[in-house]
Amino acid sequence: MDETLDILLEETEDAAPIVPRRRLPWRWVMIGAVGGGVAGLAVLVVLVVVPAIKGGGKDGRSPIEALRASAGLVEEEAGEEGGSSRWDRLFDLDEKPSPTGPDIIGGEAGIPAEETEGLLAPDPETVMPLGKAEGKCGYESQEPGPETAGYRLVHGTLGTFGSLYALLHKNGIGPNAIAEITGVLEKVTDPKAVRAEDKFRLYIDEKSGKLKFLELKRSDTKIYHVLAFDNGTVDAHKVTVPTERKWVKAGGVVKGSLFGSAREAGLEGSIVNHFMAVFGAYAKFASDSREGDTFRVIVSGEWLGKQFLGYDPPQILEFNGQKTGKLLAIYYESSPGKGKYYWPDGTSLKRLVADVPLQVLRITSPFDPKRMHPMLKVRKPHLGTDFGAPSGTPVFAFDSGVVKKFGMKGAMGNMIQVDHGGGISTYYGHLSGFAKGLKAGKKVKKGETIGFVGNTGRSTGPHLHFGLKKGKAFVDPMKYLKVTTIKEKPIDKSLVDGFEKRAKTLHLMLKAIKVPDLPAKASAKKAAQAKGKKSSKGE
């Protein structure tokens, strides 16, 4: 069928169409001339006359606006919803300037001043060139170079072999040597948490058949080496790759998808994952966002040369939606490395809790048949729910069943499929590893640990992809999970002063990022029109 279609297309493209010449009747010439004149007149009215009528009067208003005002038909502005005024009153921002700049971030906000140069999105030409970002490990003189004389070189991606163990075993490395290699590698990375797309270079001594050097490249900044020294010892180390951090502040308007709108505002699309992680319990951006909604954020990003690597937790982020209302979250650390998001009044954001498949659920990407893929940049159905959690977090069986499959499964990374009977199966993807003794055909109980959260496969960070298949179709698993909500807790009293100072400063900076007002609601317009009609009747 495909070959036939290709032949037809080729024939269509190659064939030169033969069009007979015909004289155009005079009636059609007259109709075209009259129609062109009418169209030209319409364009003139739209481009010249209407703007002239609307274009401002002496008091800055257009004649139409002045007439409407005199008749009492001026529409009232729709107020913001969802607590926006509450936050403004909390910070007393009315009639006050909105300071911004490195001094404020580096001073009152408690962010190191030396890290705040270049608050706007960095100019690619000013960021460290990629050539200067090559990593160093300190053992270059003892590692094999471009010359491979005396060595057998194997390179590629781990997906070809399925696992690190299989890679070593199929290239003649014995079990004891593999145990030694994985043992030293555990000091710098988890050898079980490999992904199919991870790259490697393996040097085998042609005479002894032993490993000389292994490079495991999991990303441009996560590169690990295993080296067999001349004295017979084997050790592992991480390659140091210099990167650069920049502070970024930006805001924008939703036009189409939130992902595309973030890119248009100068942000990398991955920032949307942070919005979902922080506000996931309050808004489903796939369905709740509307054209004209606005967003603002202040965040630190990391670059390798001109290549963007990722964002740190945003310091403050806001989403103001026509359906969601204003959502405003501030990141605050009670101690270095231990931070949470709080509402401006000091109460923590709610967290979703369920007994399966994780103890703490933080939704980073919901079930969405029309999702824009964060890595592939195309619309690709997301047939499951992603839960953010640190690598190594235990993953539980959704219900009792039998392990159908497990192992490396392409983009899903390390994955487990459990058959629960009755046509229901669950899928657990991107795992860092599996529970001890897990195998195909094993019976598991509800709540039993079957694996651990990881970042394997096509993944942007540590999380669990949880899918639920009913019959032949995947369904939204959140409809089948028992989910409760923890009551909001206020920030500790000892931290209130520091939090309030930081929150006020960050909020002032956020207010300085100019975004349009939300579109007026249809209901507000109708109310204003009704009010105008009553006024005109009274006169």
Calculate the terminal CA-CA distance, rounded to whole Å: 75 Å
* Count of alpha and pi helical runs: 12
Number of domains: 3
CATH topology of the largest domain: Nuclear Transport Factor 2, Chain: A
CATH architecture of the largest domain: Roll
Provide structural commentary.
There is one protein chain. This protein starts with a helix and ends with a helix. The chain contains 12 helices and 25 strands. With 539 residues, the chain is of the alpha+beta class. The protein is globular and about 80 Å long. Strands 14, 15, 17, 18, 19, 21, 23 and 24 form an 8-stranded antiparallel sheet that branches. The longest helix is centred in the first third of the chain and has 29 residues, at 26-54. It folds into 3 domains: 81-128 and 246-350 and 488-539, Nuclear Transport Factor 2, Chain: A; 147-238, Nuclear Transport Factor 2, Chain: A (Roll), CATH 3.10.450.350; 352-486, Glucose Permease (Domain IIA), CATH 2.70.70.
